[in-house]
Write a structure and sequence with these properties.
By secondary structure, the protein is an alpha/beta fold. The chain has 27 helices and 34 strands. A hairpin with a 6-residue loop joins strand 23 and strand 24. Keywords: Fatty acid metabolism, Ligase, Lipid metabolism.
């Protein structure tokens, strides 16, 4: 076990807290294995994108993802499975669909009398799937008799919807099924299936998920026709609150589209946006998509060089939209305007949504700068509305579903700027799958406030309302704290990043502090039990709540939720980054369970989702409906395939390492380069992960990126390489900060192989290791007399040296917007034996490091 001198935290101005930081260190090793299977073959969970599966008839009562069902060995059915892939067990044609306007969560099964007679106590079941890109995929598991009637069917199926109908059971079976429901919700097989009853236009949404690609504009027009008088957007413009119906919103979108045409905007060109959500921004986004343009929402912290050399050329930007003209954008635009005309990007206009300020007025460039009011007024300057409207419709009709409409800029693992290309079908399919899974309708209210440079935020706040017709409250326009906006507008569904849930937890602690401690303990037990009871509820299980829970909800829980502003929420979700387990437990005790969502820019922001009646604590969720996830249990490499997978990467022509790809139709410019995922459509996810026996994805270790609690993906290699370049005295530098708000680093000084026994005896632990010659030279240069690691840990000169190096790091590291703010000098190096290094690759197991040094890291981030 590490000693009290094993580490030292240097957080300006105090560097003498090594004893307190090391007090909580404990050695532990971690193995990412699955106890439920002995097979090292890849595991697969499918939501029906496998092309080898036979088509299944779509009914209005089922969720639109499909199942992959094969017959288990010795099940009594002599029908052989096909060799080409998975086989569906179709729903009998004589079974009528269940009643509408209900939501049914049922375990799908098909009864076979011969199977019931020949079933044994335990059954081995096997799922075979198409093996690419791995070898043959085979899952084996044992289903006990306590799994109720499921063990009689001879079927085991992966994530999906294997439909059965309550009419298949007689009344006595249904009565006994309802009686034993509480025990069967824990059964292994009940976690494998969930279906939803149709509600309103659910059939059309289901069709959109399965078979019907479309464009953003055509989908928007359908929603306007269905909910013309319903509220679409609300917010504050100038000094008054405003609200727009879908019909009014459509008029504004056409006005903005005409204004863009007046500015010379053409199909295939890009619009770079760095602005918060507002009603006008919604109109700009839809107008660009309707004209066949490409939208690129970027974070405001990109450097001027990156904007000028990478983002503007890659996006083929001709229009820039900002809330206010910050220094980096002004510098990039002025530098772009000073370039030779042959190299200059054709920026035609800069639109300032927040009003023309002094910075915009002082912009020394040749292109047009207009404000928000001018954007709407400019559409009527040169051409009448009647003449321009057909042009907008004709341009919109020429846009194809597979055409790129969205660029997501980020860094790759090497620190190069790249853009993920997403098509109309990508974003609409993902939005429709979320709407169907979450059960959203047009009467739902959504608070929009998330940073739009995250593609998940765009899908939720820009495209999901277009699918379901729900109302969006533009929170940033009110200039109030988010908690106050939530309390006033009472959303029915709420999405937040872990950093936001941390702020909301402060409100929860204050609210529950006003409740008697004994009463609160009783209420939180009731809330937790109710959440567990509905883990995989079926039928009308959501309405079968205990009297104790109803009393706790009326007397205690509703009052707490009201103070937080979430009393109207039917479900709360966490996205962009992993949610801390303690936060997840806290909100569950106040009857506000938070469901984790996971995805990357390449998967349109969503690859796996948890939602009510289909969730597992600590997991990232099951595969998005209509997609397939495969996982190799030995290497923990995870791949995904589905209609949410992006078109490819687009690099800047200024990038040294780019892969030329297909050019856009009708475009001969040479600045478009695309690097795609592998040829058979499988996308390799960025993090190591594994699948649980119930089909839930769990992230085991970061691979190339750290995910901050704000949702930003930070590449590891550029930072660690830059720190090693600046500090030759280091043997290893490890970047940390996964799940936190900022980055930190672990430093390991070079030590001599010949450590004196006397020095080791004086320090008793690893801190007695002698410093290497390189470390001694740097130590003498900074005025330190330390000769061992333990002495360096206690030396103030070393602390000042590390602080000064981190101040210089942004000039050396190519990553902008993120800084390494704190560091720890470690006494003992990582090793395979102690569990910090992977035995196969030698890479740092960052999750194992987080667990082993949890107390040390908690004190660093406290």
């Amino acid at each position: 076990m590490p000693s009290a001198e094993s580490a030292s935290v240097a957080c300006r101005p105090d560097t003498s807290r090594s004893d307190r930081h090391a007090a909580g260190l404990a050695g532990a090793t971690h193995r990412n294995t699955n106890d439920n299977t002995n097979s090292s073959a890849p595991k697969m969970v499918s939501n029906g994108s496998d092309t080898t599966a036979a088509a299944r008839p779509l009914t209005s009562d089922m969720i639109s993802f499909t199942a992959t069902v094969v017959q288990a060995p010795n099940s009594g059915n002599t029908r052989p499975p096909t060799s080409s892939g998975d086989v569906w067990t179709p729903k009998p044609s004589d079974i009528p669909p269940p009643g509408r306007h209900r939501r049914r969560f049922s375990l799908h099964r098909k009864t076979n009398q011969d199977e019931q007679e020949n079933c044994s106590h335990n059954k081995k079941v096997t799922i075979l799937h198409q093996s690419r890109p791995f070898s043959e995929i085979k899952i084996e598991s044992t289903v006990e008799r306590m799994s109720s009637d499921l063990s009689k069917n001879g079927y085991m199926y992966s994530r999906g919807s294997f439909e059965s109908d309550p009419s298949l059971m007689d009344r006595s079976d249904r009565r006994s099924s309802a009686t034993s429901r509480a025990s069967r919700v824990r059964a292994w097989s009940r976690a494998l299936s969930v279906s939803h009853e149709a509600d309103g236009d659910a059939t059309s949404i289901a069709a959109m998920i399965t078979t019907t690609p479309g464009t953003v504009w055509t989908t928007f027009l359908k929603t306007v026709g269905s909910f013309a008088d319903e509220t679409a957007l609300s917010g504050r413009e100038t000094v008054s609150d405003v609200s727009y119906s879908w019909a009014q919103h459509a008029v504004r979108v056409r006005c903005v589209a005409r204004a863009l045409l007046q500015l010379g905007f053409c199909a295939g060109e890009g619009v770079v946006i760095s602005a918060q959500l507002s009603p006008l921004l919604q109109a700009v986004n839809l107008a660009v998509a309707s004209l066949g343009g490409v939208v690129a929402h970027v974070r405001s912290s990109w450097s001027a060089r990156e904007l000028r050399d990478d983002i503007f050329p890659t996006a083929r930007a001709t229009v820039v939209v900002v809330d206010s003209l910050t220094d980096n954008f002004r510098e990039a635009l002025e530098a772009l305007d000073d370039q030779p005309e042959a190299l200059r990007r054709p920026i035609r206009a800069v639109i300032v949504l927040g009003g023309l300020d002094a910075a915009a007025a002082d912009l020394h460039a040749s292109f047009t700068v207009i404000g928000a009011e001018d954007l709407v007024a400019i559409s009527s300057l040169a051409t009448e509305e009647a003449a321009m409207t057909p042009s907008i419709d004709s341009l919109a009709s020429s846009v194809m579903p597979g055409q790129c409409c969205l660029l997501v800029f980020e860094y790759d693992a090497l620190g190069r700027v790249r853009a993920a290309e997403l098509s109309h079908d990508n974003v609409l399919f993902t939005a429709a799958a979320l709407v169907r899974s979450f059960g959203l309708i047009n009467r739902d209210r959504l608070i929009g406030y998330l940073p739009l440079h995250h593609v998940a935020s765009q899908v939720l706040e820009l495209y999901m309302p277009v699918i379901a017709g729900l109302s969006v409250v533009c929170a940033p326009t009110y200039n109030r704290p988010l908690v106050r906006v939530v309390t006033e507008h009472k959303p029915t569904v709420f999405f937040a990043a872990p950093a936001t849930w941390t702020r909301f937890s402060e409100q929860v602690y204050r609210a529950k502090g006003d409740v008697n401690a004994a009463i609160y303990r009783w209420a939180k037990i009731r809330a937790t039990n109710n959440s567990q009871k509905l883990l995989f509820a079926r039928g009308k299980g959501a309405k079968h709540r205990s009297l104790g829970y109803m009393l706790a909800k009326a007397l205690v829980l509703n009052n707490i939720k009201k103070k937080v502003g979430l009393e109207s929420c039917t479900a709360c979700y966490s996205l962009l980054a992993p949610l801390d387990f303690e936060l997840e437990r806290l909100f569950k005790t106040v009857d506000t369970p938070i469901y984790q969502l996971f995805g990357t820019a390449e998967t349109c922001g969503f690859a796996a989702i948890n939602f009510p009646h289909a969730w597992e604590f600590g997991s990232s969720g099951r595969a998005l409906p209509g997609t397939t996830i495969r996982c190799d249990e030995r290497s923990q490499e995870t791949v995904l395939r589905g209609r949410n997978v992006f078109m490819g990467y687009r690099y800047s022509p200024n990038c040294d390492n780019y892969c030329p790809g297909p050019e856009l139709d009708g475009d001969d410019e040479s600045d478009q380069y695309t690097s795609t995922y592998n040829s058979d459509g499988w996308l390799r996810l960025r993090q190591r992960a594994f699948l649980t026996p119930t089909g839930f994805l769990k992230i085991s270790d970061p691979r190339d990126f750290l995910v901050l609690s704000t949702g930003d993906w930070v590449p590891i290699q550029p930072f660690e390489f830059a720190m090693m370049e600046l500090m030759p005295e280091l043997d290893r530098a490890v970047l940390i900060g996964d799940g936190h708000t900022f980055l930190s680093a672990l430093f390991f000084l070079k030590t001599s192989a010949m450590t004196s026994r006397a020095a080791a005896g004086n320090n008793k632990h690893a801190g007695g290791r002698l410093l290497d010659e390189d470390a001694l030279k740097v130590g003498h240069a900074v005025g330190s007399s330390a000769t061992t690691v333990g002495e360096a840990i206690r030396c103030q000169q070393w602390a000042v040296h590390f602080d000064s190096v981190l101040e210089e790091l942004p000039q050396v590291c190519c990553i902008s917007g993120y800084r390494v703010r704190k560091w720890i000098l470690m006494a003992a190096d990582f090793s395979v034996e102690s569990g910090e290094l992977d035995p196969d690759t030698g890479d740092v197991c960052r999750r194992a490091v987080d667990r082993k040094y949890q107390a040390l890291l908690d004190s660093l981030y406290s």
